[in-house]
Amino acid sequence: MADFHQNGIITTLHNLTHRHLADLEQDLVQFSQQRPMGLLLPSLFSELQGEALPAIVQQLKTVPYLSEIVIGLDRANADEFKHALGFFSDLPQHHRVMWHDGPRLSAIDAELQALNLAPHQAGKGRNVWYCMGYILASGKAESIALHDCDIVTYNTELLARLIYPVANPMFNYEFCKGYYARVSSGKLNGRVNRLLITPLLRALKKVMGPSDYLDYMDSFRYSLAGEFSFRRDVLSDIRIPSDWGLEIGVLSEMHRNYANNRLCQVDIADIYDHKHQDLSTDDQQGGLSKMSVDISKALFRKLATKGTVFSPEHFRSIKATYYRIALDFVETYRNDAVMNGLKFDIHQEEASVEMFARNIMDAGQIFLDNPMETPFIPSWNRVQSALPDIFERIYQAVEDDYLEYSA
């Protein structure tokens, strides 16, 4: 059972009583009359053939409060898109599959690319960004949840608890971040969050001095969680990165746009497991190695926008401070694992810390070499300013794809 402690400066909504799902859903059905709700699912076609997504769809069929489900489909040809339409056709809620690789949406993307208004690289950030555009275009949902499609421990209580804070008319939250314990198969997971983000944030505080932004980021119990929810008006002005810094970028944007009392985090699952990334010690372009570089760059860029000045000497001090703090965390997590009867590989944990330390230095050098890098995707407000009919065109493209291929 969770405690009720409020850590940091962001409100934490705990799971204190394991309230019955039927009670939560009864509330949400009532809330939906005032605040219609939607769900955004960024997906690869390959996930339709995995074990997680088919089970997720079966669970979603029972959800009574959703007005809309939007599935962003990547890496699919025409036959695969048609298969996807059939795969999701059992959903009783109004739903649409966005075929990002199809000719209609690709033509819109090419036009936006020509105006430098589109994501420059494929990935989850691009998928989510276009889905956000469709949510704005359809106008069917006022409160929206987003979660990944590879959650093998999924149940609809996760969704209910995730969307509740932004759906309840008595709450003033614009954004909610999900969190959970990353424990599965008898061991601790979540290495990037445990061994990179938390010790790096604390190293940055020590080296660079006090920062409201660092205090804010350090308040989130699981900043890399891919599950969050938001009010519809958040989508118009948010600028998100298209690389592995997506979750950090979203949190940074919420810090820029909203007061802390409009944001919260919520305990959404006792057990959570999904697809694991390789450590990729020898490949900085893949797995957790690339993730750690992108995340570190995202933090450095954000601090720079707030006036922090970095130099090679700063990054050397940050690396050394991080390394010591992270090794102390390895001991902390080992003790936690032992007391809970979990397996713990000290060698793998310390190997992760060593790789993260190298990548922090590399990320710092990349930042210094290219300080004008702008990985953020433009806001939808800016896109609509350049192309006033963009939402109508996206909406029509998705409808035309559905009509052509669902026949």
H/E topology pattern: EHEHEHEHHEHEEEHHEHEHHHHH
Mean pLDDT: 93
Taken as a percent bin, the fraction of beta residues is 5-15%
Rg estimate, integer Å: 21 Å
Q: Could you tell me the number of beta strands? A: 10
End-to-end separation in angstroms reads 49 Å
- Number of H- or I-type helical stretches: 14
Helical content band: 40-55%
Structural class: alpha/beta
Which blocks of ≥5 consecutive residues have pLDDT under 50? Answer: none
Q: Estimate the global geometry from the Cα principal axes.
A: globular
Strand order of the largest sheet: 1-10-6-9-5-2-3-4
3D structure, described in words:
With 407 residues, the chain is an alpha/beta fold. Helices cover 49% and strands 12% of the residues. The protein contains 14 helices and 10 strands. It has an 8-stranded mixed β-sheet, sandwiched between helices. It has a two-stranded antiparallel ribbon with strand order 7-8. Helix 1 (21-32) crosses helix 6 and helix 5 (124-138) crosses helix 14. The longest helix is centred in the C-terminal third of the chain and has 28 residues, at 312-339. The chain is globular. The termini are far apart.
Descriptive labels:
single chain; 407 residues; alpha/beta; 8-stranded mixed β-sheet; two-stranded antiparallel ribbon; 14 helices; 49% helix; globular; glycosyltransferase activity
Outline:
With 407 residues, the protein is α/β, with parallel strands linked by helices.
